[in-house]
Amino acid sequence: MEAVESLAAEAADTWSIQATPFLEPADASKIEEKFQDRGDVLCLRVFGGRRLSPEPDNNTVKPGEGRRSRFVIAHADLGMDAMTAEEEYCTVVRCENVNVASSNTFPNALASIGVHLDNVGDIVIEDSNTVCFVVTPEVTKQCLRLLSKELVGTGVSLSVVDSHEFMPHGEMQEMKLSRVLERQMERKKLDAGYVQFG
Q1: What is the pLDDT of residues 12-27, one digit of tens each?
Q2: Which of 13, 48, 73, 167 is the most exposed, fewest CB within 10 Å of its CB?
């Protein structure tokens, strides 16, 4: 929470736009509650894929709703709207021709190519061969170039979904890493001087 307050102070003081990592729903709800009456900054919650916020006190995610989200924080007079924030700070990637049952889970595959889960939103399994997931724009190129090497399937292809398209409905994949990858990622965070948000 302190890190988000720091981002908000920076956005207000420098008339800039800041973004948090992707957060779990409980953490995001706390931040949304804290910033709802602030007049100095806009705090826009974005999910990627043109999805809505889930209903409060509801553990299930309905079609058209997102689970993991990030906040785009801007000076109030910059006039940013949620649609623009989502287009600029969330990228939806579609992975086709992947054998979902035989492949490594997507969180493990993303971590294997060096993408921290803080940069990953929801992962939606559309069918047995198609998966869509949300990432920060900074890691999109890395996913497009390297992720197909970590997945099982003939002709695995990855592409960026147009910003006007909606995220498909499907089963959401849990954001859990294998223990070995979890330890490796923690070591990398410590080596890089990583700061935890939330």
Answers
A1: 899 999 999 999 988 9
A2: 13
Residue 105 CA to residue 36 CA, distance in Å, equals 36
> CB of 160 within 8 A of CB of 90?
no
Are the C-beta atoms of 32 and 45 separated by less than 8 Å? Answer: yes
Which tokens sit at 144?
């497009």
| Residues present in the chain in total | 198
Split at pLDDT 50, 70, 90, the class of 198 is: very low
- CA dist 59 and 196 (Å) reads 24
* Distance between CA atoms of residues 137 and 52, nearest Å: 20
CA nearest neighbour of 21 among 145, 118, 104 = 118
User: How far is 60 from 54, CA to CA, in rounded Å?
Assistant: 8
